[in-house]
Amino acid sequence: MIGIIILLVLGFVLLIAELFVMMGTLKFGIVGFILIVIATYVTYLTYGNEVGNITLGISSVLTVLITVAGIRYMQHNEVGLTEVVEGRVNEVDPVLVAAGDQGVSFGDLKLSGRAMINGILQEVESESAYIDDKSAILVTRVTPSKIYVRELV
């Protein structure tokens, strides 16, 4: 009897841990559910149908209540992501950078790197093979996603 109670309690503790503490891992919830099923099965084997049905009913009701409480907790406490990122990666603002602008390389440009252009640090791509750190550069062309530069000589 004590073994069955320990299995049930441990199963519910793992289920609660899954829903309220470690959301999304699924391992604790699955193991907890398996422990509850094993405890119910052992109850049927040891004590018969009447006690097994009572155990099944109580564990089913508790499992549903814990799951509903966990879902409500997640909805009301803003557990998930609520903000939408509207920016885009590698989007070049044509107002800030245009062909003909000058700048300085920020680190070595080994085909790509960073450069300070018009006071803003930008991701750039070199049209030549290699540009040293702190070299003067010239913007040769600008696409919606890249800035192409070459070294000023």
Concise description?
The chain is of the alpha+beta class and 153 residues long. The chain has helices at residues 2-20, 27-76, and strands at 102-110, 112-117, 120-126, 136-142, 147-151.
Write the layout of secondary structure elements.
Layout (H helix, E strand, L loop, with lengths): L1 H19 L6 H50 L25 E9 L1 E6 L2 E7 L9 E7 L4 E5 L2
Parallel strand pairs: 3-5
Antiparallel strand pairs: 1-2, 1-4, 2-3, 4-5
Helix pairs in contact: 1-2
Characterize the structure shown.
The protein contains two helices and five strands; from the N terminus they run ααβββββ. It is rod-shaped. Helix 1 crosses helix 2 (27-76). The longest helix has 50 residues, at 27-76. The chain has 153 residues and is an alpha+beta fold. It folds into two domains: 2-76; 102-151, Nucleic acid-binding proteins (OB fold (Dihydrolipoamide Acetyltransferase, E2P), Beta Barrel). It has helices at 2-20, 27-76, and strands at 102-110, 112-117, 120-126, 136-142, 147-151. Helices cover 45% and strands 22% of the residues. The model has no long low-confidence stretch (mean pLDDT 86). It has a five-stranded mixed barrel with strand order 1-2-3-5-4. The termini are far apart.
How can the largest sheet be summarized?
Answer: 5 strands, mixed, barrel
H/I helix tally: 2
Structural class: alpha+beta
Widest sheet: strand order? Answer: 1-2-3-5-4
Distance between the termini: 87 Å
Order of helices and strands: HHEEEEE
**Strand content of the residues, in percent?**
15-25%
* CA-atom Rg in angstroms: 31 Å
Number of domains: 2
